Each structure stands twice: as structure tokens, then as C-alpha cells.
Amino acid sequence: MEVIAKTSEVKNVLTEHRSKGESIGFVPTMGALHRGHISLVEKAVSDNNIVVVSIFVNPTQFNDTTDLKNYPRTPDRDMKILEKSGVHYIYMPSEQEIYPDPDTRVFDFGKLDKVMEGEHRPGHFNGVAQVVSKLFDIVEPHRAYFGQKDFQQLAIIRQLVKLLNLKIEIVPCPIVRENDGLAMSSRNLLLEPSIRQSAPLIFKTLSDARNKGVELSVKELISWVVTTINKDNNLTVEYFSLADSITLQPILNWNDSESIIGCIAVRAGKIRLIDNAYFK
Ligand code: PAF
Asked: Is the pLDDT at 213 greater than 80, yes or no?
């Protein structure tokens, strides 16, 4: 495994692999790796000849400077984990390397980024699109791997690939959970112990809500989820949306969509957690 900081160097080595007809799988990350990331890496290793993982905490996707400052950074541990996972290259650029000049591009995702995370974290997806488009341009992967925990991000990336007319296969990977159901996230490291104990209620409530199914109206179910989670003093629901899984636009009735996703964001102390589950 090689760790490369320079863009020109990573481009050169990958051009050589491509010229030999080898397939390149790419896992973009912001580091602080957990089993969710490892599942993406394992899938990439099994699908491709060469696997590249990037580690870069992208400032343009943080709409909150404290969140950026506190974002966990564990590069030495990350490298050890990746070494054991069969990764060939880690691309770990500096901010100057990715943004030698400010990136002023504004992407038009239509209604896709006007809801849920896009609504509550203004500018977040534009920042994600800026960095991912740059990384795609540098790595030129055949396939790129993204976790379904960031459900809206996945939809945005698919749209980005269409907008930029890229020939990259986007491979979605299932959410990996702790034993108690909490979706794996780098931010889980930042949860205070008492709040960490409350956090599994998020997925438990989503699961119970799924079982309630169409017993309740969409409006009633949304209200039930929000009330159930908010009863825990450590948790406050920022939003819970039942939406069409492709357009991400909220549904009003169960028969408004063939495929319904429930997406939630919860404030757990100072940390913001997201999760989702299919309802239909
Ligand atoms: O999902 C993430 O970790 C980030 O949003 C990504 C895709 C690496 C872009 O910075």
C-alpha cells in the first residue's frame, strides 16, 4: 500500500494501471474510518484490480465551522486499518492540493438538494459535489463506492455523474450498524457516553415505525416518530421525512410512491446523527 499526497503522482500511477487494462475502484472518505467504510473497501477490493481510498476532510461541505474543527481525524489508525484491507493506494491530499484556488462552481441539483440534509445544511451538497467531482477527475475510477447511510448524498452523486456525463459506476453499499442498531458514523466517536446510550433509539423507532406500516397515515406516523424520539431528553429530531426514494420529495399518502424512504436527522447533544430505512 502506498500513501500519496500529490495529485500529479496519484494521476501518474493510476494512468499506468489503466493502460494495463486494470479496473480502478475508488472509496472517497473523510477518514476516522469505521466498519461502514471497511465494508465499502471490501466491496471495492472484490470488484476491482486496484483500489484507491482518499482521506480528505473537505472544508467546503461543512456549513458549521465548529463541526469542521471537531471532525475526528485519526490518520495513523486509518492507514493501519487500510493496510490490512487490501487497499493499493491512499490518496491523502492537503487542502492546497485540492483547492489551489477557491472553488466557485455552483451545481444545479434541482429539487434534490432542497429537502432534508440540503435544506438543513445549506451549501453542504454543493461542497460535496465540488470535492467529489475533483476527486473523480483525479482518480478517474471505473467504480466508486458510497454508503446508503448518506442516502441523499448518494442521490446527489448519481445526479452529479449524470450532469458531468462521467462513465463511473456508482455502487451503493448497505448501512453497517453497531450491535445496538446505531448506524456507524465517524461522528459516533464524538458522542458523550450518556448520549451514546440514547442514540440506538433512533433506529429502534424507525424499525418500530416500519412495523406500524399503513396502520397510521403518513402524517400520523411522522408525528409518532418525532414524539417517540423527542421523549428522550438526549435527543431532538431535526426532521423526519417520508419521501420517494428516487426524487426524495416528501409523500403525503402511502400510495404517492412505489418506493418510500424514511430519512431522519437527530441532534444528540452537540452531535448530529442521520439514519434512514425503506418503508415500502
Ligand atoms: O461521505 C463522506 O465521507 C464525504 O461526504 C465524501 C463523499 C468523502 C466527500 O467529502
From this structure: no
Terminal Cα distance for the chain, rounded: 42
The CATH number given to whatever domain includes residue 237 is: 3.30.1300.10
Q: Is residue 278 part of a domain?
A: no
58 CA: nearest ligand 1 atom: 10
The predicted model scores a pTM of 0.97
CATH at 23: 3.40.50.620
User: Are 167 and 247 found together in one domain?
Assistant: no
Over residues 223-236, the pLDDT tens digits come to: 999 999 999 999 99
- Orientation angle between helical segments 151-163 and 124-139, nearest 10 degrees: 60
Nine-digit cell string for 73: 481525524
Residues 28, 133: contact at Cβ < 8 Å?
Answer: no
Spatial distance between the Cα atoms of 189 and 69, rounded to a whole number of angstroms: 14
What domain range includes position 251?
186-273
Task: Locate 54 and state its grid cell.
Answer: 482518499
Cα 277 from Cα 266, distance rounded (Å): 14
Question: What is the spatial distance between Cα 234 and Cα 216, in angstroms, rounded to a whole number?
Answer: 26
C-alpha to C-alpha distance for 69 and 71, rounded to whole angstroms? 6
For 96-116, what is each residue's pLDDT tens digit?
Answer: 999 999 999 999 999 999 999
Residue among 39, 130, 136, 153 to mutate when testing ligand 1 (max atoms within 8 A of CB): 153
- 9: its cell numbers: 503522482
Catalytic-residue membership of 120: no
pLDDT, tens digit, 9 for 90 and up, residues 24-44: 999 999 999 999 999 999 999
Can you tell me the distance from the alpha carbon of 158 to that of 166, in angstroms, rounded to the nearest whole number?
10
